[in-house]
Amino acid sequence: MANDNTSVLDPLAATTFPEERTLALAHMAPALRRALKLYFALDARLARQVAQAREPMLGQIRLAWWRDQLKLPAVERAQGDQILDAVEVMWGSDTNALLALVDGWEELLGEAPLSAAAISQFAAGRAQPLAAFIPQTGKEALVDHVTRAGKRWALVDFAWKTSEPVEHEAALDLARQIEGTVILPRSLRGIQVLDRLACHSLKTETPLLVGRSAAFVALRVGLIGR
C-alpha cells in the first residue's frame, strides 16, 4: 500500500463523502488516510453502478471492467477515470486487495430480495480490503478484528440503504451475529469509528450517525478509542 505523501497532489482532494466516512478519514493515521479515501471512492462508484444497472448483465459488465483494470499493471490501465488513475498512487502494490470489493458488490446483482447468504458475501467482500491496512501497523494478529469491524459496518450501512424490508432485517440480523467489541490501534481508529457507529446503530435501531448520541460515540471513539 502506498504511504501518504503530502508532496504528491491528492487525486481525490475534491471528492466528498457521507459524514461518517469523513469522520473515519479524519481519525485514520495520515500514512493510511489516502488509501482509505480511495477505498471509499471506489466503494461509492461501484454502489452507483450496481444501483443504476437495469439488467444484471449490464452490472456484471461494468464490474468486470473494474476487475480487469485492477488486475493490469498500472501502465496498462485505461486513462482518464479519476478513481482508477488514483489507484496506483494510493494503493500501490496492494491494489489486488480491491478485487474483493468488486466481487462483493457483484453479490447485489441477484434477484430481490437478496438472500442472507448473498448479503453476507457482499459484506465480506466489502470488508476484506481493509485488512490490507494491517501490514502498515505491524500487528498481523489484528486481521480478524479489522475484517469483523468492516463487515459489521458494511452490513449496517447496507441495511439502512436498501429499500427491501427483508434485506434490511437480514442485514441487521447478520450484523448482530458478529460478536465481540473490536479494539484497534490508533493508526486504524478510522475503521473503529465506523464499527462503533454500526454498533450504536444496532442498539438504537437508527441509521449511522443520526442523532446526538451517535455523534458523541464518534467523537469519543475518535479521541480515546473507546
Description:
This protein has 226 residues and is mostly helical. The protein has one domain. The chain is built from 11 helices and no strands. The model has no long low-confidence stretch (mean pLDDT 92).
Summary, kept brief:
The chain is an all-alpha fold.
What's the layout of helices and strands?
Blueprint: H1 19-26, H2 30-52, H3 56-71, H4 82-91, H5 99-106, H6 116-127, H7 134-137, H8 143-159, H9 165-176, H10 189-204, H11 212-224
First-residue to last-residue Cα separation: 27 Å
Largest sheet: none
Number of strands: 0
Radius of gyration: 17 Å
Strand content: under 5%
Output the number of helix runs. Answer: 11
Low-confidence stretches: none
Q: Residue-averaged pLDDT, rounded? A: 92
How many distinct folded domains? 1
The topology string of helices and strands comes to HHHHHHHHHHH
The secondary structure category is: mainly alpha
Helix content: 55-70%
| Rough outline | globular
Protein name: Squalene/phytoene synthase
